[in-house]
Fold this sequence. Notes:
Blueprint: H1 9-12, E1 24-27, H2 32-37, H3 39-49, E2 52-56, H4 61-64, E3 70-75, H5 85-97, E4 102-105, H6 110-118, E5 123-127, E6 138-140, H7 148-153, H8 171-183, E7 190-194, H9 207-213, E8 217-220, H10 227-236, E9 241-243, H11 250-258, E10 262-266, H12 269-277, E11 281-285, E12 302-305, H13 329-332, H14 336-352
Parallel strand pairs: 1-2, 1-4, 2-3, 4-5, 5-6, 7-8, 7-10, 8-9, 10-11, 11-12
Helix pairs in contact: 8-11, 9-10, 9-14
Amino acid sequence: MVAPNPSDPSDTFRQAAPAPASTTLVVQTAFLGDVILTMPLLTALAKIHGPVDVVTTSQAAPLLESHPAVATVVRYDKRGADRGPVAWLTLARLLRGRRYRRVYLPHRSWRSAALVWAAGIRQRIGFGDSPARSSYTHRVSRDMALHETRRLLALAGETSAPVDFDFGLTDGEVDLAGDWLASHGISQPFIAVAPGSVWGTKRWPYYPDLAARLDHSVVVVGGPGEREVAAAIVTAAQGQAASAAGKIPLRLSAAVLSRARLLVTNDSAPLHLAGAVGTPVVAIFGPTVPAFGFGPLGPDDVIVEEMGGLACRPCSHHGPMTCPLGHHRCMLDITVDTVEQAVRRVWRAAATGRGAQAETP
C-alpha cells in the first residue's frame, strides 16, 4: 500500500485506483462510532451485491480494510490532508472512473451526497430525513424507535435480520494483544476502561476513583487525548493497571478489548467497538440517552444513567462540549458506588454465563 503524501491530494486516493471496481459503494465519513455501527450494513449489502467499496475517514479505515464484506477502502481525510475542493474533486473523479452502479449513504451529509452526484453514480440510496434527500434516487424511512444498527440495515431492506458486525479480528491480532498485555503485567481476566469522548459532557469524571476500588487488573483504552486521564487511572489503580490510550493502533485496541472480561465506557466509540468484538460493557450515559439508538446491544450489557429525572436531560443529540446550565449533574450525580455495582453485575454474569439483566443489583 502506498503511503499518502499530504502535499498531493491525488496520492491520498491512489490505493483505490487499481483493480476492478465493486458494483456498490458505501460512503460513511462520520465519527468512528458511526463507522463501527455501519459494519452490519456492509455485511448485509455484501450478501446482496458482493463485497462493497467504502469511502471512510483515515481514522476508521484500519477497521474496514480487512472486513470480509469490504473489497476496497478509500481513505478520505476530510478534516486534514484532504480538506478543501481540490481533494474533493480528485476523489469525485476517482469514483466516477470506477463506474459504480449504486451508492449507499448512511451518513446524512450534503458533502457526501454532492460527492456521489459529482461521481455520476446513478442509484443513490439514503434516508428520507436527510438534508440531502432531494439528491437521492431512492429514499428510505429512518425509524427512530430502532437501534442505529437496524436503522442502517433498513438501507439494505433489512430491519429484522441479525446484527452481524463480522469484525474479522485475526488470530494473529488476538495473540498480539495477549503479548501486549503480558508485557505490561496485565493478567487475565481484566477490566478495560474508556474514559474519553469527543464530546466533553459525555465524560464521566470518576474513572480514577473507580479504578482504585476494582479488584482486578485494569487497561485504559482510548486516543491520544486520553493520555492524561489514563495516567491518573493507572496511578489510582496502584500497580495493577496499564494504559494503551494513544499508544497502540486501533485494531490492536479492538483485539485488547476482545480479551477483556468487560469494558466500562462513556457513550463513545469504544462502546461500539466492544460490542463489535463481543465484549460486555457497562455504558455510562449522561447528556444523551440510549433511546437515541446508540446504546449497547449485548445480553450482558448494563446501562448506568442519572435516574433523578433531570428536566435538562437529554440536552442534545451528541452531547455538547460543556454543560449548557453549568452544573453537569447528569454525569456528576452518577456515583462511583453505582458504577462499581454495575461492574460487579456484569463481571459475575460474564463469568457464569448468566445474563446481567438476571442479576440482582
